[in-house]
Structures are given as C-alpha cells and as structure tokens.
Amino acid sequence: MPLPAEWPFHRSVLSSPQNAVRPIPDRPLLRKFLLLLALSLALSVSPLPSSSADNSSLEDALHQLAERVAAIPNLHGPLRLQFFQDPNFAADTGKDWQDTFLAELEKRHLTVVEDPAAVLLRIGLAQTPTLLVLTASTRISDKDEVRFFILPRAVFRPANLPVAPIRIERQLVYQSPDRILDASSLWNGAEGGLAVLAYRNADLFVLRLDSAGLLTQSISLASAGARISRDPRGELSVRVSDGLVLLPAESCEFIWTTSAEPNCHTAKPNWRVSPILIPSCDAGGWKLLADGADWSTPEVLQVVPDGSLREGSAALLSDFPGPILSIHGGQNPASALVVTRNLRTGNYEVYKITLACGD
Q1: What is the 3-state secondary structure (H, E, C) of 284-325?
Q2: What does R_g of the chain's alpha carbons equal in angstroms?
Q3: What is the mean pLDDT of residues 40-65?
Q4: Is the pLDDT at 37 greater than 50, yes or no?
Q5: pTM, 2 dp
Q6: SS3 assignment, position 249
Q7: What separation, in Å, do the N-terminal and C-terminal C-alpha atoms of the chain show?
C-alpha cells in the first residue's frame, strides 16, 4: 500500500532566528529507516493494510499497533526494540509514548530484552501536516513484516506544552564600547531606566541611565578599592535609593542619593540563578538558559518551560550577536535584561526581552 501523500521523508524546520521553536538535530539513521519502510510498503511486503481511526488517541493507536505486532505470524520473543522518531516532532511528544508501547507489548506476553541476538523490532513515530504515523517493522524468516497505524494529527495535543502560545519580544536598550558586566532595572514608575555595571580603564563604575538610555549618574568603585579580577564577573542589584555590587571576592554597597563613597569589603558572593519569567498567560514560568562559555561565537538564548512536568517541551530561541554575559530578571515578571558583546561592532549591548502571549 502506498504511503499518504504528506509522508515526510525529509523536512527542515524553517524558523525565524529571533523567535523560533527549537530545532532538533537531523538523524540520518531515521531517514534511512523511513526510506526502507516506504519501499517495503510500496512493494506491499506486509499483507496487513494500514489503519486509521478518526477518534483515536495516541494511546489507543499504540494499543492497536501492539495488537498487530503480537499477531505477526511466527513472531516469538524475546524482542529487542529500536525506536525512531521524527526529529521535528520529538520535542512535542517526549518519550512517554515509548514506555506506553513497551507496556502494551508486555501485556501481550512479548518479552523485551537488550540482547543484540534478540529479534529486532523497529518502532517509529512520524508526523505529516495532518497525520501521525506509527510503524512497526521486523524481519521473520527472510520476510519483512511491517505494520502501521495512522491517526489524525489534530487529535494529539502534547500535555507538556503550555496551553497559551508564547513569543519573545526583544529591544536593544543600551550599548557602549566599555565592558558591561551586568545590567539591572531600576524600579517601576514613570521614570524607568536602568543601571549598568561597567569596566573602563581598570576601574569599575555603576552608571545610572534614564528611560532614553542617557547617562544621569556615575558612581566609581575605585575609591573603595574595588578592582576587577581575572574572573570578569559582577552582579548588580539596585533599589530606589541604594544598590549592591557583587564581585568574585568582595561586595560593594552604594547610595544613589548622597555623595558618600561606596563601601567595599571581602565577601564570597552567592551568584544568582537563572531567572524564571512568568508571562500573564502561563503561570508555570519559563527559564532563561545561556552559558557564555565561548567568547568568539554568537550565542542563542534558550527559553524553556520550567518544572519537571513540563520538561521536553519545545524551547523558544533568540539569537544574539555575541556571547551572553549576564541575564538579570526585570521589575516586570515577564521581562529580563540580557548583556552581550556584539562581535561585529565590538560594543557591549543590553537587551530587554519580554515573554508576550499570543502567536
């Protein structure tokens, strides 16, 4: 029996570099398996026709596919399973369906082992724009046995994906030739603005900027003895009237509203963890992930659903023009500030990213 017209022998993910569902690396072995499967079906190797069920769930389809596998003539255990999955669909489905199919086989008294000498049973899950296709393929007595089950794509809704669609909005809010270690929002209110921890001529500065990115105040930490170390890290936290700078071996407090010198003392900082953003339509939250390990290449910010129950969901990606040096949660729970170094211009840049609801 020929395959449906939409069968995807090979398909690449086309997505915006600014806001994209994370692509999964292609697997040549999967393409080879699907090609062999298509040829087998085209030659009608298996006498059992394909099946579809308009109202079936993925669990129902796995149940019925297991029944068809158990009915293959002369198929005896033990079996060795090899799973294949459409790489463009793997982030949606995770691997729970594999455990479900394994349990269905065990219900039918088919033993599954890891012994390379056992009979190999290949199980595949692929998608077309309108269909999900489950396949099972094995070889018995020099004969290929293939079973497959088709169900509408619309019946499947991944339980681990957020209900509401999320997108990344990004805005360049400040750039400078001076090295920027961190940036922090000031406070909610009409004034807005941000503070920047910058490094210039071997001195550390805290710069206060208005909502238009114009400098309104500069505080030098040099008089307090603060010096950058070989470890070029620093974190900045600010409030309405004061702030705190954390360095690898010391911390410095300062006050915006007086001329008093900053106060620095030896301390071992507790570096902040990656922020979790909470857009209005998804209280589950999203983690921001980046390592900034390679200073010679652009980096991709990963925005992934938070919580173990949501692991495996598709990630949002946003490309930056260089390594990501710091991520600081903003006053708005759905926003954060990201510091990067633009490898093309050499400038350090601060971006405000916001998780917005809707496509």
Answers
A1: CCEEEECCCCCCCCCCEEEEEECCHHHCCCCCEEEECCCCEE
A2: 28
A3: 56
A4: no
A5: 0.56
A6: coil
A7: 39
